[in-house]
Amino acid sequence: MAEPEIRIEGFQAAVDEALQDIDMAGGNDAEIIEIEDGANGDGADPDDAGQEGTTARATFIDYLKSPIIELLVGQGEEQTLLTAHQALLIKSPFFADAVAQFSEEATIRRIEFANEDLDAVGCFLQYLYTGEYFPKKIGDALESDPAQPATGDDGEQLLKHAKVYTLAEKLGVMDLKSLAHSKVHRVNSTARGELAYARFVYANTPRSDTTIRKPIASFWGQRSHVLRHEAEDDFRALCLEYPEFGFDVLSFVLDARERKGVEAEPKSGRKRARGM
Known about the structure:
It is built from eleven helices and six strands. The N terminus and C terminus are likely disordered.
């Protein structure tokens, strides 16, 4: 996957300067925390960090003065080192819990994030600093991405926002989760792209997450009689791989027929209609 495009104007100089200060302080006193899947915790509001007993609101400069946290994302050759300011990072309860494990004497604070998508983490960091992530919403559409075709057959545009959605859920950043979900519905795709998106969602979300699953069932329930012919083998494979997907689509179709009263109730459940 391509390197994430993170547009944070004016902050790189501050980050570089902070990293230089860390190097001067001594690079051997590093503390590394490895994040395991499923970890979570309750974090304090960054506005209250270091201000116990006061009601003063932290300014953005206060955020930028906070310690630098290193995020080691990915594994092997794809592993990438990112950085973020601690006071912004702990807006996530997940990271607030991880940061709380550092000792006050640590000069380098690093969190290993081995199993997360680099682009999704980049979008998360961009959201922390700017309140948005690329591509931004423009009315009912998204700003154009020169790296992506207008209509993707591989589902990459849908998958980008789905990965941000699942990451935001894990990190406890509900506003980002809602933002990512709203962007999904502004992406043009094909039958194969929609199936790739559905496969990711059913593989990475719980059955109880109807927020993202129900629209998928609705989409295929209304269009499967047409779209499945564009990717019939993929559609069949998805139904067999994730029976919940097939069940949700079938339930939508049957519920719709029931509401519309397409079929009249048989007078007897023991006899079938003749001549059909």
